[in-house]
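Lab notebook: predicted structure, single chain.

Context: the supervisor wants predicted structures on file for every construct in the current expression panel, including those that have not yet been purified. This is the next one on the list. No modifications to the sequence; it matches the entry in the shared construct table.
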Amino acid sequence: MAGTEETAPARNVLNATPGHVLALIRSRPEWTRQQLLDATGMSRPTLQDRLAPLFASGLIRAAG
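Prediction complete. Output recorded below exactly as produced.
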């Protein structure tokens, strides 16, 4: 059940602040939005709400 162990800590960010999401992204910089959705269990709008201030402040940027 390696998949469960890998995503279990990430699922704790369901109601996380943008700072928590930033820490998650920093743990594995190659995250895609879909991977973040899968790992956190957030809805797409909720994830976008958490990412918006990170993009606006320049802490993260879209790649590719």
